[in-house]
Specification:
This protein has 3 helices and 12 strands. The chain is of the alpha+beta class. The chain has 2 domains: about 1-20 and about 215-239, no CATH class; about 35-215, no CATH class. The protein has an 8-stranded antiparallel barrel. Helix 1 packs antiparallel against helix 3 (about 215-239). It is globular and about 45 Å long. The two termini are about 15 Å apart. Residues about 1-20 and about 215-239 have low confidence and may be disordered.
């Protein structure tokens, strides 16, 4: 046990030192926290523009931040988060984005290959847990790209739209469909948004409040790793 305490103590010291030297997107003067979403008119797939779009159009510009992470540089992440700064939030094209909900699950998760004008679908497309999506829809042709997908938790009759996988933003494939700062070759990258919640029914005019990843992530991750390792060592000693 003496060795365990020494190891955990050393690990925590390293964790604190690593956290002290780490940077966060929140440390920058340009930081604007990710925002909630305001729901506008409901589209049933027949309206133009955005023919084929199903869901509530997002009524106002919104902010959505990526976190610092490998293999991307801080400059790449900053360019995404700071797009439009300081005059507008980084998603000023809100009228291209639609929130679709189906409490029965099985919603499609689209990947639009803009260069070849082909609609693909993610590997977790139409899984039972996919109860909501936030997708970019083209003006015509019915092509769409999903940036968020998730399940819905019932929080005392108030729905919480959780992003699955946790805080995972599904990026665009090509420049041209999206702004150049948004292109990460279709990778799933970590963002600041864990989900959205509201009070009461979801309908036109509803404001979805955002739930953000707590900071600092580095300390949290190391703490959880040390806790898990401590539990493992204890189990080994008891065996």
């Amino acid at each position: 046990m003496r060795y365990l305490r020494s190891f955990v103590g050393a690990a925590l010291i390293l964790a604190i030192a690593a956290t002290a030297g780490a940077t966060s997107i929140q440390d920058r003067p340009e930081y604007r926290a990710s925002t909630g979403l305001t729901l506008g008119e409901y589209y049933d797939g027949s309206q133009t523009p955005h023919y084929g779009a199903i869901g509530y159009v997002i009524a106002d510009p919104f902010q959505l931040n990526l976190l610092y992470q490998q293999p991307y540089t801080e400059a790449q992440i900053n360019a995404f988060n700071d797009y439009g700064y300081p005059t507008t939030l980084n998603f000023p094209d809100n009228d291209y984005y639609f929130l679709r909900i189906n409490t029965s699950g099985g919603l499609p998760i689209g990947i639009w290959d803009y260069e070849n004008n082909v609609q693909y679908y993610a590997p977790d497309n139409e899984e039972p847990w996919v109860k909501w999506t936030l997708s970019y829809w083209s003006h015509s042709g019915g092509y769409f790209h999903t940036v968020f997908a998730g399940d819905i938790l019932d929080m005392a009759d108030d729905p919480y739209l959780r992003v699955v996988p946790g805080a995972a933003y599904r990026t665009f494939l090509w420049d041209g469909l999206a702004n150049y700062v948004e292109v990460f070759s279709g990778a799933t990258v970590q963002c600041e948004v864990l989900g959205y919640y509201t009070y009461g029914d979801i309908e036109q005019g509803t404001q979805l409040d955002v739930k953000l990843v707590p900071e600092p992530l580095t300390m949290l991750g190391v703490f959880l790793s040390v806790s898990a390792l401590t539990g493992y060592i204890r189990k080994r000693r008891m065996a």
